[in-house]
């Protein structure tokens, strides 16, 4: 099953092998490293879990079914956090992997993420949340 990142509420950036994910609707942010960062990149490309399991099994000699079980558990956690949502179809080119997407999977370790909520209030007070369809800042009607 493929997933998509819940944009625009969820934004992410890869920094030195770690993916930083911010959920602007909840104010929580997350750190994904090692295998979780690689898997996030695959999720971002719409790669189905089954294809990920095949790739991990191929790179690490792990049983495909146990890889798939780990991936299903991880995707369930990400979905529960509101970071990803299932897609109904596989996007074209999902299996095209750039760079050394697989390098972080040797040796494979179950993916996990760290959740931080210490900046929740600051992220939720951000004036960007008050943007209307007219953009921000909005010009007063008298100036239009």
Written description of the protein model:
- With 144 residues, the protein is α+β, with helices and mostly antiparallel strands.
- It is built from four helices and six strands, in the order ββββαααββα.
- It has helices at 35-44, 49-60, 64-80, 120-125, and strands at 3-5, 10-15, 18-23, 28-32, 84-86, 113-116.
- It has a four-stranded antiparallel sheet with strand order 2-3-4-6.
- It is globular.
Give the SSE map.
Blueprint: E1 3-5, E2 10-15, E3 18-23, E4 28-32, H1 35-44, H2 49-60, H3 64-80, E5 84-86, E6 113-116, H4 120-125
Antiparallel strand pairs: 1-5, 2-3, 3-4, 4-6
Helix pairs in contact: 2-3
How many individual β-strands?
6
Overall SS class: alpha+beta
Instruction: Give the topology string: H per helix, E per strand.
Output: EEEEHHHEEH
Name the poorly predicted regions: 94-100, 102-106
Approximate shape:
globular
The end-to-end distance, rounded to whole angstroms, is 48 Å
How many helices? 4
Q: How much helix, percentage-wise, in residues? A: 25-40%
Rg, rounded, reads: 18 Å
- How much strand content do the residues show? 15-25%
